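Sample intake sheet
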Amino acid sequence: MWRINARTVSNEPRRMDLRVRMLNQASIMLSQAQLARFYGRSPDRLSEREIQRYLVHLSQERGLSHSTCNQVAVALRFFYHVTLRRRATSFVIPAARTPSKLPQVLSREELVRLFAQPLWPKHRALFLTAYGAGLRVSEVVALRVRHIDSDRRLIRVEQGKGARDRTTLLSPRLLEGLRAYWSQARPEPWLFPSRDGKGHVGAAAAKRAFAKAKESAGIDKPGGMHLLRHTFAANLLQAGVDVYTVQRLLGHRSLRTTARYLHLTEPVREASRVVPEPLDFLPVLSRVCAPSEPKAPAGGAPAPDLGEIVRRHGASYRASHPVSLPQERVLRAIASCRTATLGGHLEQCDRCGHRRAVYHSCRNRHCPKCQPLAQEDWLEARRADLLPIPYFHVVFTLPHELNRLALTRPRIVYDLLFVAASETLQTFARDPKHLGGELGLTAILHTWSQTLSHHIHLHCIVTGGALASDGSRWIPPRHPSFLFPVRALAKVFRGKLTGGLRERSLRGELGTDDALPTLLHTLREQDWVVYAKPPFAGPESVLRYLGRYTHRIAISNRRILRMEGDRVAFRYRDSADGNQTKVLELSAHELLRRFLLHVLPRGFVRIRHYGLLANRSRRQRIARCRELLTAEDPPAPPTQESVCEKVLRLTGLDVTACPACGKGRMAVIAEVEKLDGPTLPIEVLDSS
C-alpha cells in the first residue's frame, strides 16, 4: 500500500494553493491516486521519465481524449511544481495538445427561428441578453437589475470568468426588450430570478430551456447556449469591428481566443470601431420585445398552431414519409406564413414610437391563416348572384372503397365526382316531373372528416327552382321544403360515377389494377349516400352558410388544443354520438400524414358553378331570373378598399391603431426583405 511522505507533503499548504489558484482539489487527488495505482508507489517518489511514460500510456494505450489528458497533466504539474516545490529541477510535464476546432455559429435564419419561438418572457429576455451582449451562461444568469445601466447603455458583468469585472454593450433594441420584460415580471434584485424567487435562475435551467427552444426551432447544430456568444462575436467581426474591441466586449484574456472568430467571417475591406447593434443582424421581430406573453389556453401552455407543428416536426416527417411535390409546397408555405421568410414591412406609431413588424402571408389555400379574407372576397362576389328564392343544401358522398383510388388518381376521381353530382342534379331539374328547367348550383369539394380521415364528399348549394329552357318563366319547386327524392338521386349518382370510372379505366387512365373490375362491381351493389338538408331561410343565411364551407381546410388552428413533445391534441365533433365535442390525441407525424391526405393537385378547382351560375352566361341568366322574379337589383359592391379598411368593416378591429398607447396610428416606415435559404422559419407575428 503506497503512502505519500507526510514530511514532504503538507495538507494545509496544498489547500491554500488550491484556493488561491481556484483549482479542483478532487481532480488533483484523483490524478495522484491513479498515478500511484499505476506504479504501486507513492507519487512523490516517481521520476520525470515515469511521469511522462504514464501520460503516454493514458493517451496512446488507453485512448483517452486530449481534454482528459490535459486535465491530468495540469493536476500533476500542480502537484509536483507547487505542492512538492520542485521548481529547482528541470522537471516539466508536457500537456497534451488539444486539436483546434472552430466554434459553431448560428445563421441569420436560425436566429430568427430561435427567437421567434413562443417562449416565456423570462427565457426570451435571457436568450436576447446572452446574444445581444455576448455573455456566457454563468454571466447572464447572475445579472442583477442594477447591472443594467440604461443611461450609459452598458451592462456590468461582475466576477465573470477568471473572477474579473467588465462592461459590455447594451443596444437600444436589447434595452427595449429588457424593459418590456421588466414591466411584466418586475424582477428584483436578480434580473432572471429562480422559480422560488430566492436566487437567480440556474445555469443548468437556462441551458435546458435553450436546448428545448433550439430543438423546437429545428436547429441541429451541436452546442448549447454558448452558441449565442459565438454568434455575437462572429457577427461583430463580420460587420468590421476590430478584433481588440470584440476581445474587450467578450472578456477574453488572450487575443488568440478572439482571433478564432476571424475564420468564421468573410474578409472586410475596412475595419470600424463603431460597434453595431447585434440584434440588427436579425430582421425586426415584434414578439422579441413584445410586452405580452404567448397566447395560452386556460392550462397555461402556449397555444400551438399548424404552422408550429410543421416547423417542429416537418423535417423528421419528410425523412420518414414519402412527400409529393404539392405536399412539399404546402408544408413550406404553412411553415413560412407570416414570418420573416416571406418578408414584410416595419410599422411605427406616430405618437409613442412603438414599432412592430408585419410579415406577408403565404396565401396558400391549404393554410389556416390565409382563408378569412379570401373567404370574404369570394362571398362579396357571390352576393350579386343571390336570388330571393329558397336554396337547398345537397351532399354527395363517395364510398370509402374509392379512397385508395383517390390517393393515386386524385384529379380523375375528384373531377368525376363534380361531373357526376352536377349531371345528376341537372338531370332531375330538366325532368318535367320535377322542375322542367335549368337550375343553378355551386359545388364545394371536401375530402376530410372531423378526425382528418379520408372522407370525400361534395357540398352543393342548389337553387330552389329552375329557369325554363326558353327563358320565359321561373319554375318554383312543387313543395317549398322538398326538391328531389334523395334515394333516386343516389342511384343516378352511383350510375354516373361508376360509369365514368369504367370509361376512364377502358382508356387506361386508372392504371392496370386487376382489382378494379371487382371494385366497380362492388360499388354498383352498394347503397350510396346522398343527403339533402332543409332549405335556407333566405339569401343572407345562404351566404353565412356558404362561408362555413367555401374556404374551410382540413383543420383550423382554433381546434388544436396542445402539443406536448410529439403528441398533438385537437377537438372534433363526433356525428355518431349526437355531435358531441371530443378530444383526439395523435402523434405529430400521424397528424401531418392525415392533413396531407387532403392536399389537392396543383391548379385543381375545388369550388365550381353549374347551370344558371356557370361563368359563361351567369350575368345574363341571373339578370333574367331577377326580372322574372321582380327582384330588386343586387347591392352595389363595396368601393375599392385596403386590407386594413376591409378588416375594420368586417370585424370592427382597427389594425392601424397602436397596440402600445392605443392613441397613435401605425405607419409603414421600412420594408423587411425576404430571408434567403431554407423556408421553414418560426412564426414571428400573426397579422390576421
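Comment: The chain has a mean pLDDT of 80. Residues 11-83 form one domain.
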